[in-house]
Amino acid sequence: MALLDVVDLAVSYPVRRGVLAGAVAEASAVDGVSFSVARGETLGLVGESGCGKTTVAKAVLRLIQAARGRVLFDGRPVLDMAGGELRRLRRRMQIVFQDPISSLNPRMTAGGIVGEPLRVHRIARGRALRAAVGDLLRKVGLPAAAADRYPHEFSGGQRQRIGIARAIALSPDLLVCDEPVSSLDISIQAQIINLLEEIQGEMGLSVIFISHDLRVVEHVSERVAVMYLGKFVEVAGRDALYREPLHPYTTALLDAVLEVGRGAPASPGGIRGEIASALAPPAGCRFHPRCPYRMPVCPEAEPPLSEAAPGHRVACFLYP
Predict the structure, then answer these.
(1) How is 146-165 classified by DSSP, letter by letter?
(2) What is the pTM of this model?
């Protein structure tokens, strides 16, 4: 049984004309997403900015409310939980945020930040808490003495290490990494990625790794889900997807940043136009206005995410 099962997840945001005005419309950020994450597996989630990657993760973690769908964590329905049951579940699901500056409280020391989950969940206090914080800081490559310093006294990479230490303090089963290296220098990115992989190996974590950097996703992931305008368009094992992408959007993304010639036809001229608004997504296949291979059926019907090869699903009428 998978650690995490997500079925038909949908999330919408209200759109208001003013601060005090009521909602005048709804933007569909995520629409009918389904996936699973096995124990110890890393699932990479990629797509353009604004496609709904972070929204999926926040809905799974119950940081925002889902409009519909089911989220099963270790067989238990996450979206139905409340009170103490939800509180206990949060110990098992943690997140590393994108921005290591805004995600750390500037008024708290590094030790206070890392130790806060242990205090909140009443796991350690006093000397035991101080010792646990020192161990966590050392685990992420910082000295125990760093516990007395404030976030502004650290570099960007060091701040992200503090965020990682906080996320693993409760020994979770699932770790969501939301663009954890996008704001860091290239040399520091490699260090943080290596640290995350080392921690995953030691703790046996399942990981959802969100990124727009396809090179990073290829390095860390075992399976990859490609997202476009609130929907998954392709889900496959890493090697299969990078060797032979099937969806025109995936092919165009790979051609833009990686070498062309992976067995699939390169998208002529790359991706045309701009991504549509979530307020008014295109009918049928949401990618069809930008697709070089669109057919008459594409604006008329929405292609299902179906299996084109063993373990390789794609939402495209090119693959009946």
Answers:
(1) GGGS-GGGS-HHHHHHHHHH
(2) 0.91
